[in-house]
């Protein structure tokens, strides 16, 4: 790609062999390109972001799922978009242009669409996909947002965008295709939906 990069892999003691594969990649590409930063147990997405940031040396950070639901082919488009508008954040969107979701059942699609719709109505965040996590951040912007965000779970990604708008950061969007993981299961259940609604109301009351 011609871009100087490093890949930081945060593995929270997952039983699926992620760490072993990352160690093999580290041997192939070198520890300057592949940085494996494991943690002994699952400590949450927000703390994983902070853990990753502590080891990032670049000016920009791309955050993505490691199961290839987020395809790396979109990263050059994120970089182009950022340069084009000098954006603080570039967010991947499944709900604009030729973006889409593949592999989800109707229930999961309805939950995601519903969450985005309710949030658009209540918070007017100015971005079309609030629950996705495939994003490029200016490093100092990500650090500032992590200081402000208090949510956990499903509502966390949404709060990142809402707080960004509140703080006056600029957001660009790139349509992406999201392909559901082939192995493993989503952890989205009734508890996560309830916590999302609580988080949404909290944001509505505080922004």
Automatic annotation (TrEMBL):
Matches recorded under CDD domains: DPM1_like
Keyword flag Cell membrane: no
Cofactor entry: Ca(2+); Mn(2+); Mg(2+)
An MF annotation (GO) of this entry: dolichyl-phosphate beta-D-mannosyltransferase activity
Gene Ontology BP terms: dolichol-linked oligosaccharide biosynthetic process; GPI anchor biosynthetic process; protein O-linked glycosylation via mannose
UniProt keywords, alphabetically: Endoplasmic reticulum, Glycosyltransferase, Magnesium, Manganese, Metal-binding, Transferase
Top EC class, one word: transferase
Catalytic reactions on record: a di-trans,poly-cis-dolichyl phosphate + GDP-alpha-D-mannose = a di-trans,poly-cis-dolichyl beta-D-mannosyl phosphate + GDP
E.C. code: 2.4.1.83
Known pathway: Protein modification; protein glycosylation
Subcellular location: Endoplasmic reticulum
Domain Glycosyltransferase 2-like: 3-145
Family of the protein in this entry: Belongs to the glycosyltransferase 2 family.
Subunit structure: Component of the dolichol-phosphate mannose (DPM) synthase complex.
Function: Transfers mannose from GDP-mannose to dolichol monophosphate to form dolichol phosphate mannose (Dol-P-Man) which is the mannosyl donor in pathways leading to N-glycosylation, glycosyl phosphatidylinositol membrane anchoring, and O-mannosylation of proteins; catalytic subunit of the dolichol-phosphate mannose (DPM) synthase complex.
Protein name: Dolichol-phosphate mannosyltransferase subunit 1
